[in-house]
Amino acid sequence: MGERNPQTATGSNTDLVGLYRQMRRVRTFEERVGELFVRGLSAGSMLHLSIGEESAAVGVCAAMKDGDTFTTHHRGHGIFLARGADPDRMMAEIGGKETGYCRGKGGSMHIADMGLGHLGANAIVGGGIPAVVGAALVAQQRKTGAVSIAFFGDGAMQQGILYESMNMAALWDLPAVFVCINNQYGMGTRIDQATRATALHERAVAFGLNGETVDGLDVVAVRDAAERIVDAARGGTPGFLAIDCYRFFGHARKDKSPYRDADEEEAGRRKDPVAFARAALVEAGQDEAELDAIDAAAAAEMDATIDFAARSEEPPLSSMFHDVFAVGEPEPEPLAVRIDRVLARN
Amino acid sequence: MGERNPQTATGSNTDLVGLYRQMRRVRTFEERVGELFVRGLSAGSMLHLSIGEESAAVGVCAAMKDGDTFTTHHRGHGIFLARGADPDRMMAEIGGKETGYCRGKGGSMHIADMGLGHLGANAIVGGGIPAVVGAALVAQQRKTGAVSIAFFGDGAMQQGILYESMNMAALWDLPAVFVCINNQYGMGTRIDQATRATALHERAVAFGLNGETVDGLDVVAVRDAAERIVDAARGGTPGFLAIDCYRFFGHARKDKSPYRDADEEEAGRRKDPVAFARAALVEAGQDEAELDAIDAAAAAEMDATIDFAARSEEPPLSSMFHDVFAVGEPEPEPLAVRIDRVLARN
Amino acid sequence: MAELTYRDALKKALHDAMTEDEDVFVIGEEVGRYGGAYGVTKGLIDEFGAERLRDTPISEPAIVGTAIGAAMAGMRPVAELMYVDFIGMTMDQLCNQAAKIRYMFGGQIGVPMVLRTQGGTGRSAGAQHSQSLEAWVMHTPGLRLVMPGTVYDAYHLLRQALRQPDPVVFIEHKALYAISEEIDLDVPPPDWGRAVVRRTGSDLVIVTYSRQVHHALQAADALAGQGIEATVIDLRTLNPLDFGTIRDAVEPIGRVMVVSEGPLTAGVAAELSARITEECFDFLHDPVIRVAGEDVPISVSTALETASVPTPDLIAETARKMLV
Amino acid sequence: MAELTYRDALKKALHDAMTEDEDVFVIGEEVGRYGGAYGVTKGLIDEFGAERLRDTPISEPAIVGTAIGAAMAGMRPVAELMYVDFIGMTMDQLCNQAAKIRYMFGGQIGVPMVLRTQGGTGRSAGAQHSQSLEAWVMHTPGLRLVMPGTVYDAYHLLRQALRQPDPVVFIEHKALYAISEEIDLDVPPPDWGRAVVRRTGSDLVIVTYSRQVHHALQAADALAGQGIEATVIDLRTLNPLDFGTIRDAVEPIGRVMVVSEGPLTAGVAAELSARITEECFDFLHDPVIRVAGEDVPISVSTALETASVPTPDLIAETARKMLV
Ligand SMILES: Cc1ncc(C[n+]2csc(CCOP(=O)(O)OP(=O)(O)O)c2C)c(N)n1
Ligand SMILES: Cc1ncc(C[n+]2csc(CCOP(=O)(O)OP(=O)(O)O)c2C)c(N)n1
Ligand SMILES: [Mg+2]
Ligand SMILES: [Mg+2]
Question: Is ipTM beyond 0.85?
Fold first, then answer.
């Protein structure tokens, strides 16, 4: 296995500065996604921002290594970015453009990249979870030393497939990890309106997994917990990690969260892992100018993604018939062609 | 609400003699089901006998009251019988006969009777579980005081829908009970080959339910545990009860259980709740002749079921088109009629 | 007469049914406080309370299963699936349980529930949020299937669905929620299960349902400008299927196009084509032409999404070719 | 030449594929120690071990999901669903995930898995264990669909399925496991996706697959005794669908019956009927006749069960009527 954090071309992430940089990049990217939407450049409004959840993405990815695989839920931009994604190609995908990770077919909720082990974001709550059992099975059989991690939200804690998957992982001692990013809400439903069992990790423990809950305010704590859980999984003890945080904004771009009150929201937004890391760094004597430079670099990097997405082309109509089946297989006959054939009686 | 045990036309079941009588009836019925199969009178071979599990059926039903509802898994003959079923109509149904509970359409795995609150046996492992959430919801909203109980096997503990259902029951404080009859096997898979988490009730506790496990050897212990769990559910705290027992015979009629060894099977069959109850009664000074009379009555009663089933008619072919939709709705057009119409061009 | 949107007509139908019958209740994700992902139930919780607009955890299989149990126990649940795309998780409960309970149990009891959901393209929602899966339902004995295309029908078909003794799958179209009509809801609706002829023309018959009714009517208008007159039939319910109305229209004309947003192969259009051919064979000048979704998943790219399903242009263009 | 059962041919296909390719493994309920509910994998665990015959908990959605992940990670899982009736629990994983992954992700990766299962009537197994649900699969873009009717095909189609780059749903028929044939497996099979003409006759064409091939051939024999000669086409795979073979048979004859065990409405027979009509319209003397399952659930009563799906008698009787 390689070192942790293959994504840190721009510097080590194992120190807090690195973690801060990654969180800032995620935050800034998501802000730009909002802009893309406002400018009418996104493909639709089904954009789910992970603002407030940066420590989960960055902290867990800091515990991953080359060759590890993962799946995410619909709110997965931050995770993929923390894992090393090219933000240009991400933004292009969100815009439904040909230059995107999935050539504009997948969009925000279906980004994937096999090169980085991203087995796919998923628009079905819980839908991506069992795939990590399969990937972990392969890692175990081939003794690659890799783990496979499923990222999902607190809403998915109420999907049965999670328990089926965790049970299999425990039964087979798989290098699999289940990470629940508990931003307290599934759309308009607060976690305590979805379940009586809000100590989420206890459910995993009852299925025989290693389980912990960590406060997402402090990215270092998240990373440390993730290292414990991920390392144990690599050793054959699958695990579960719940990360407590807060969904700063609405469920998707059009949701203004009228179902929660302003006080709660304000309190929630004070649990800001990016601000917390910055304050901790300053406290520890970090030069603020350096942090400002990190912020500025992130802003510049992410500004460019919008230009990239805007400049990119829509996928050609012919691509509609590609990739239903593998390259080399006959493509579906376009309807118009078929109708002409039928009417021409041949 | 009525008294417990509306089914005890033949005597109180709350004493051990009554419990013994019911268990003997179940045991004898299942033996006759085996005979029905051997005599070629059953509809197919998908017959799942509950021999060895009588205390679960009888003990839990002893905690139920008039108006309560329940669903069962595919191994549900004993439960329904303990709840008051007419064994003749059961046997006829198992034979696919018109006089059966479901007019021969359902068979062993789909017996139901609305009069006794039996919302249906199910051939889908876990398939009948969520219906009790709905029935409990209605009981709660209408304040009927009824509980609804899902009976299922240890195999269903690995079906996600159980957790979704338990979570809802806990969230809404429903009068619902989940009863797992742990006969140690799901077909050829021993429970510890299906999960690492063999303390089954802990999973329910992790979802916020009342949870217990009880040894099924002693029907009195089962009844007492069931009363605790069922009474609490009636009061708004849903519960889960696992009953440990042993599947004495194969999974279905053709399975000889080659996957388990003779020693284990012998030891398992020594955990016989019927024999245990009888021994306890004798120990307590019960007249054995009276017990023999109970056994003889059960034998006579159940012998008659075979005659009844054998004498009964197959359902008429026309019934194939009944009950797809409600009475009064047009029935599906039989294919042969349709084809004639098409060929006649009208 | 009132101007009403499809969304509000659905809401009013729920409202009126819940007012008339206290056994009717709604259960699903975000149906209460949030008011439904597409706003259909917005505000109802204020009037009827959280028990009758029951918000659930994200547990689709158990939502449908709960509705089944509640229906068997005597109430009339309206279970909501936020997207028909999630029906895959519930096909066991829907097709092995709800659809078969009356039959398996020898007619003892039915499952009078409505499964409300919405499908179709139109919001760049991608492959898992844009499907038209009605064919799976239509293929399952024991299920009714309703697909309203108009505001008036949204109201009345939902009211009628809520009076059925059997399980009804009621599929709205996400692109229709905002359409509005001047309608008089007091005009009595057609009988349950009847199709409606939306437009009469003597050159060809277009048989369709849900949003494609609008596409077909748009196409018919365009065609009229070119001297081609189409009859457009809105099926309204796919089960029951009103074949009589189709036959009456088809026999005198003999040229038929069936239009469905679902994928072509083994879809609703196939059933309609087969059935029409069987029953009207001698009247057909040409084979029934299927205009349906391409046999591909739906892309998030708006360009690809739009081109993946029948458009008014494709319908009109196909009609012109049929009449050459 | 060897006498082999359908069951053993399937086992041999798995055996040979697992021997050749160590990435092939079987995962499902009771596939290992028990040897499969219908005995198809019996004994394989002794040769290949418990990792390659992986017994699972009863968790159908996660079984399919696990196979997807394993396929994406580079192996070739054969996931087994004990009965196709359980596919309802897995339709999300199968149709929203496996079927769409290549497309949604822009062609980056495929899901080369095989979902083996069995369906159909014949064992008084009741409404939830006797269905023919292939239409749901056929309607889903991105899935291959294989339904072998013969021993030789059971072997070769499974071998071919295990070489496909895309997900394959492979549906056996429970009533066929015990049939046996003298076959030479070394005779090279038809190309992937090709139908086979099982019998040639000039009076009508019967297009079918899976167990109904046998019913059709039995019927054809009976008809031959009465001077009616039928061509019988065994489709073998429903996706790909070999329409060329159908067309070649249909055009010269012009009388077609399609036979499918699944329920009539919106089923495979509808697709075949629609397609044949579209492409061979001018050659048809009569509408394509569908002989399919009744639109009812399957009863446990043997009498009702048998009458719910096409029998050789019904096929022969229908053919006679077609030729009056
Ligand atoms: C199976 C399924 N059910 C419902 C939805 C609609 N939906 C999308 S996101 C969401 C909330 C998910 O909450 P959570 O898992 O906490 O993730 P978060 O959005 O908070 O990141 C819902 C209900 C869906 N996409 N898939
Ligand atoms: C969803 C589903 N999966 C698999 C099966 C096949 N099957 C029938 S019974 C059974 C074992 C069930 O075990 P358990 O729940 O312990 O019940 P038991 O048979 O021991 O009473 C299996 C796998 C099924 N009927 N339904
Ligand atoms: Mg959340
Ligand atoms: Mg068991």
Answer: yes
